[in-house]
From TrEMBL:
<protein>
    <submittedName>
        <fullName>Multidrug-efflux transporter 1 regulator</fullName>
    </submittedName>
</protein>
<dbReference type="GO" id="GO:0003700">
    <property type="term" value="F:DNA-binding transcription factor activity"/>
</dbReference>
<dbReference type="InterPro" id="IPR047057">
    <property type="entry name" value="MerR_fam"/>
</dbReference>
<keyword id="KW-0678">Repressor</keyword>
<dbReference type="GO" id="GO:0003677">
    <property type="term" value="F:DNA binding"/>
</dbReference>
<keyword id="KW-0805">Transcription regulation</keyword>
<keyword id="KW-0238">DNA-binding</keyword>
<keyword id="KW-0804">Transcription</keyword>
<dbReference type="InterPro" id="IPR009061">
    <property type="entry name" value="DNA-bd_dom_put_sf"/>
</dbReference>
<dbReference type="InterPro" id="IPR011256">
    <property type="entry name" value="Reg_factor_effector_dom_sf"/>
</dbReference>
<dbReference type="Pfam" id="PF13411">
    <property type="entry name" value="MerR_1"/>
</dbReference>
<keyword id="KW-0175">Coiled coil</keyword>
<dbReference type="InterPro" id="IPR000551">
    <property type="entry name" value="MerR-type_HTH_dom"/>
</dbReference>
<feature type="domain" description="HTH merR-type">
    <location>
        <begin position="1"/>
        <end position="71"/>
    </location>
</feature>
<feature type="coiled-coil region">
    <location>
        <begin position="87"/>
        <end position="114"/>
    </location>
</feature>
Amino acid sequence: MLSIGTMAALCGTSVQTLRLYDKKGLLPAARIDPDSGYRYYTNGQIFLFQTIRLLQRTGMSLAEIRETLQKDPVDLRSLWDSQEKAILQKQQELHEMEIMVHQQQKQLEEASLMQQHAGKGPYIKRVSATLLSLPIEKEGITPKVEPNDAVSLLDQHLLSLHIIPALSYGFLFPRKGYKDLSEIIYSHTIKKIESIPQSIPEDLTLIKAEENFLAIDFIWSRENYLSYYHSLLDAARKQHLKLASVAYEISYPLDFYKVESGKRFIAELGTRIVGK
């Protein structure tokens, strides 16, 4: 037989815990010395101890565990089936948390790089990203208006696909020589995603970007938006770059914990360079 000290060492626990389990009727000692009161255990009780600890980790109280262990062994099968489902659910939740942490890290890194480029003029960047785009049905969504409805609609689609929406959001619009901000009408809402869903609704389009883009970064401002856009086009002309017919805007909140009216955004305007 195993002394209580040996049993504690083999189980990776303390003598006090074994005494508590004995007191609660969970793991009675196999023998108690009548003279010394010292407790002894059998090798088979090591398995019972591990079972108790496992059930504790699932959130069951000691009283619930004692009641469970007193049931017919056949009933225990349904218990373990339910515990397996709970564990799988927890694994899924942890996986989603891991994706969200990775997503937040990547977004903060991208926002930091944009801040480093802010105010320094257009530059060429290599983009490697996967996005989903959704056509904007509501007319007249321009940089002059709040785009909350268009953004939230894409977020709802992403949530239905079990994708956690990114903090950043963006838009596509035709690349033209606009003279007024109201002339820029967004055609699509876009958001970056970390993993590709198995099935994509018909109204969503998957975009895989692995190309060079001409971009300009700035603190988002309606007053300066158009001048930054023209700086982008001027740089393309000076460098003799051929640009795609579609431009994009991507924005990251710099203080996303604030209410909407108090938010600041680091923004990027850009377009794909054709043939480079």
